[in-house]
Structures are given as structure tokens and as C-alpha cells.
Amino acid sequence: MQKLHVIKIGGNVIDNSENLHRFLKDFTALKGFKILIHGGGKVATQISESMGVSANMVDGRRITDIDTLRIVTMVYAGLINKNIVAQLQRYGTNAIGLTGADGDFIRATKRPIKTIDYGFVGDLSDKSINPGNISKLLEAGFTPVFCALTHDGEGQLLNTNADTIASALAVALSTLYETTLIYCFEKKGVLQDINDDDSLIKEINPERYEKLKTGQIIHSGMIPKLDNAFAAISCGVKSVIIGHSDDLGQLKGTQTFGTRLTN
Ligand SMILES: Nc1ncnc2c1ncn2[C@@H]1O[C@H](COP(=O)(O)OP(=O)(O)O)[C@@H](O)[C@H]1O
Ligand SMILES: CC(=O)N[C@@H](CCC(=O)OP(=O)(O)O)C(=O)O
């Protein structure tokens, strides 16, 4: 099986042009098949509020009414995606920028209303992604760059968390490639003390994860990220790394970085 890296960058990396450029250079230097997924929640919130549309997050997920959907479509699929693609072209990666609607690559279902109406938010299932189609792009020499938008097949775009898209892509493609899923963000990895970059936890298994949650060492956005990551490992993804976007260049041969998840 050939190797594939599925790499996600979060909003704090996108928002810092120095970090973003360093990351995109290291991403280009990484050999073999690769897919990039970007978030951009932070930029979407800033632009949304500057347009007088207040951002409303519940459990780390954006309540996406029609005005918000219009804004995130412009910000994720336009502003952020096209800038990343242009920078990758500059560094020598033949990137192709996509939403899940392009090529019908990622189909989602609008989240059903239970206690909260999330609006135009899409949930993924194990039928959401056809790995064969994405593989054709890879084999043709393109590097797909996905933003956090999916579609329902009926003409409706949906906002889907970028961590979830990364995990679902890694799982679907692990049937064809030996897949490593990497979440890059602005910290060294999962930390024992969130304010101390030297307190990196190098390895976490599900048992330790439960303890870290109970002790509130892990909280907020890190909980859904790790839930997605452990789900990926139990569904065929070979390894998951969570680390700083500046450290991607350390990934060579057996050398790794950040926090490694094991089962
Ligand atoms: N133990 C921990 N170690 C590192 N980060 C943590 C930890 N617990 C909570 N976090 C928080 O999780 C955040 C990352 O999740 P999130 O904001 O969803 O990331 P992203 O920017 O990749 O979308 C960090 O910015 C940090 O505030
Ligand atoms: C439904 C939902 O919450 N979607 C996310 C998509 C962007 C994202 O995931 O961005 P980060 O990775 O930078 O947080 C949002 O709109 O914030």
C-alpha cells in the first residue's frame, strides 16, 4: 500500500501568515500523496461580526443560519481556500481547491433538530466519501485542498467542522492507502498544562484520554478533536498525530512530532 498523509490546519494557523507560510513550505516538502483540509472558524467569526452577523457557537459548532452560510461560503471556499491554493502553487504543490460539492467528493446530511437547531450544518456518515474518486485526483498528480463545506446532493451547501472532514477523509482513504492523519494547530500537541509548551504528552491511548478528560487537562476544542482522532484509528487509519504546524518538517522516516494517539 502506498502512503498518504491527511493533514488538517486550524483557524489559528491560517490567521498567522508567518505560521501559515512556514507550514505550506513544509507541507510541500513532504513526499508522497497528501491531502490538506483547512478550517478558518476564527476568520469567519471576525468577518461575520464585521458584517453585523453575530457568531454563535454551541459545543464548538457554529449555528449556521442562512446569512452565516453565505458568509462561511465566501470565507472558506473563497478567501481562505483560494489563497492557500495560490500559495501552494507558488511553493510547487499542484493544489486543487475543493468544497465537498466539487466532484461530489463529500456528501453530508443536514443535522436534524433535537434540542438545538444548528441550521445548515452537515453531518457525515460512512457513505459520505467515495475514496476511489479522490484517489483519481491524487494519481493524476493533484493535491486536494478541502475547505469546511459539504453538500447534501439536493443543491444545499452545508457547514461541516474541518476536524470531522479530516477524520472522515482519512478513514475513507485508509481502504486504499496507508494513511496518517495529522492535526496541526498552534500548540506543541496535547499538553499536560495548556500554558506550558514544555508539558507535551507524547502518547495517549483511550484509557489515558478518559483520565485526562476527567481531570479537565483536556477540554474545549480538544475534546471533539480527540474524539475524531480516536474514531479514525479504530476505523483503519494507521496513525494520528496532533502537533504544532511549525513542527511538520520534523516528520521524516520514523521521526515524528507532537502527540501520537495509539489504541
Ligand atoms: N490539554 C490541552 N492541550 C492543548 N490544547 C488544549 C488542551 N485542552 C484544550 N485545548 C484547547 O484546544 C484548542 C484546539 O482545539 P480547536 O480550537 O478546535 O483547534 P483548531 O484551531 O485546530 O480548530 C487549543 O487552542 C486549546 O485551547
Ligand atoms: C459546523 C462548524 O462548526 N463548522 C466550522 C468549520 C470551520 C472549522 O472547523 O474551522 P477550525 O478548524 O478553524 O475551527 C465553523 O464554521 O467554525
From TrEMBL:
Pathway: Amino-acid biosynthesis; L-arginine biosynthesis; N(2)-acetyl-L-ornithine from L-glutamate: step 2/4. Substrate binds at G40, G41, R62, N159. Belongs to the acetylglutamate kinase family. ArgB subfamily. Its EC number is 2.7.2.8. InterPro entries: AceGlu_kinase-like_sf, AcgluKinase_fam, ArgB, Asp/Glu/Uridylate_kinase. PANTHER family: N-ACETYLGLUTAMATE SYNTHASE (PTHR23342), N-ACETYLGLUTAMATE SYNTHASE, MITOCHONDRIAL (PTHR23342:SF0). It catalyses: N-acetyl-L-glutamate + ATP = N-acetyl-L-glutamyl 5-phosphate + ADP. It is found in: Cytoplasm. Coiled coil: none annotated. Residues 4-242 form the Aspartate/glutamate/uridylate kinase domain. Its main location: cytoplasm. This is Acetylglutamate kinase. It comes from Mucilaginibacter litoreus. Catalyzes the ATP-dependent phosphorylation of N-acetyl-L-glutamate. NCBIfam families: argB. GO terms for molecular function: acetylglutamate kinase activity. Keywords: Amino-acid biosynthesis, Arginine biosynthesis, ATP-binding, Cytoplasm, Kinase, Nucleotide-binding, Transferase. The keyword Kinase applies. The record marks K8, K225 as: Transition state stabilizer.
